[in-house]
Amino acid sequence: MQLFLYNRITDRHALSRFRLTLRMGLFPLLVTLVMMFAMPAGPGPDLWCMFGLTIGLELILWGAHALHREPAVVSRWGNRLKATSDAWYPLLVFSVQNLFILLTIAVFWLTLRKLGGVLASPWVNINILLLALLIPAHRFAKELMSRTNDLTHVFWEKACRYLMVILGTTLAMAFWLDYVLPQTGPIAPELMFRILILSVSASLVILVCVALLLDFWFRRKNTPGVK
After folding, report:
1. Whole-number mean pLDDT of the chain?
2. Which distant-in-sequence residues (6+ apart) come within 8 Å of 111 by Cβ?
3. Residues in CB range of 104: below 8 A, 6 or more apart
4. What is the reported pTM?
5. I need a labelling partner for 226 at 20 to 30 A (CA). Which of 19, 24, 199, 209 fits?
6. What stretch of H or E contains 138?
7. What is the pLDDT at residue 74?
8. Distance between CA atoms of 129 and 39, rounded to whole angstroms?
9. Run of H or E residues at 21
10. C-alpha angle 185/186/187, rounded to 5°?
11. Where does residue 169 rank: exposed (0-12), middle (13-18), buried (19+ CB within 10 A)?
12. How far is CA 23 from its chain centroid?
């Protein structure tokens, strides 16, 4: 089964998607450069690694696209790659896009880590990591669902989407609590009431997501012909 057919080099929007993907890589690249110059002690290996990865991905994508624009490729390997373009180029564009998204999240994560605060909590770091990994997982599940319309793929698309909402809710609550809670001293009664209201609201969001996913799971299991 072929996926990401809209990324094929023969698609009429292939050039615009190629340019969009290159522009996606400019954001982590520029932010990484700013952080490298802003560090008083100089950039560490983490920033150099992200800078090199972003440049490398940009060059790989640019080279893959340029290969198809050459009327005649000298090497047999290059000709073979052009002949099998539909088998690998769409997946390459999809992978590079998601890697740029992950690099952007990593840049912000490193920036916040240097500022300290809520990111001292291991759970918050795990939360960010899971949320970052769920973004490409959801895009992949959504592509499978659109191609097959299989209930199993629909379930995984919904599972990824609801998990992203749950993790986003808990992450937002963690950052908000870190911002409003006093460093020392008791919590004011009006602040405690606000925390209670938002905690109940976040819990309701999580419960609704779990309930909707379980409801779809049991309805899927009761559908004839679905394992």
Report:
1. 83
2. 31, 35
3. 27, 28, 31
4. 0.81
5. 209
6. helix 122-148
7. 61
8. 24
9. helix 14-38
10. 125
11. middle
12. 16
Give residue limits of the domains in the chain: 1-115, 118-227
The gap from C-alpha 21 to its chain's centroid, in whole angstroms, comes to 14
pLDDT band at 36; cut points 50, 70, 90: confident
Residues 54, 100 contacting (CB under 8 angstroms): yes
| pLDDT tens-place string over residues 123-135 | 888 888 899 999 9
Euclidean distance between CA atoms 28 and 147, whole angstroms:
31
Pair of tokens at residue 19: 């340019």
Confidence of residue 225 (pLDDT cuts 50, 70, 90): low
* CA distances to 39, 48, 173, 182, 199 from 125, in Å: 22, 21, 14, 22, 20
Place of tokens 């624009």: 69
pLDDT digits (tens, 9 = 90+) for 76-121: 777 777 778 888 888 899 999 999 999 988 888 877 776 665 566 7
Residue 194: C-alpha distances to residues 176, 197, 215, 223 (Å): 11, 5, 31, 44
Please provide the size of the chain in residues: 227
- Tell me the two tokens of residue 101: 């998204």
